Amino acid sequence: MLTIIVAVADNFAIGKDNRLLCHIPGDLKRFKEITFGHTVIMGKRTWESLPNRPLPNRRNMVLTDQPDEVIEGCVMAYSIEDVMHKLATDTENFIIGGGMVYRQFLPLADKLLITRVYKSFEADAFFPEVTENEWVLESEEEHTEFEEFRFSYQTWVRK
To answer: Which of 83, 74, 123 shows the shortest CA–CA distance to 104?
Structure first.
């Protein structure tokens, strides 16, 4: 199974200057719990943005267009087809960014775990629009603990 996990603002923003747009401690904890023990697939810029590399207790796969590039502690993939060939078949695999990687894998994903942030941010990386003709909102859990903005955890499944 291929699942995209992402935090998306009202204006579809996901990042700026290779950084997250906001810090939601509970969301980072949730990300760790959900992806623990699984494969996480990311582009090289997302890899470079991680404060601790590789992400512990996960199989880290980095997608790069640099032939023969090797990053210690990672499974390397050099194309979408290569990623698909190297996915674990017995467990869930998670696409964790960035923007270009999300766009490339959205048509191949089975599920979306979206942290919907109800605020717009200035950004340079965006998530593609999720359309209801392709996806069904399976569940949504609203959160209001921040004064700055509300957010919800959404699970979308492919129709």
So the answer is: 83
Q: What's the pLDDT score for residue 88?
A: 85
Span 80-131, pLDDT tens digits: 999 999 998 889 999 999 999 999 999 999 999 999 999 999 999 999 999 9
pTM (2 decimals)? 0.95
Torsion sign across C-alpha atoms 97, 153, 156, 31: positive
Percent helix, strand and coil across the chain, each rounded to 5? 20, 35, 45
Task: Return all residues near 11 (Cβ < 8 A) that are at least 6 apart.
Answer: 120, 121, 123, 126
CA distance 27 to 40: 16
Domains of the chain from N-terminus onward: 2-158 (3.40.430.10)
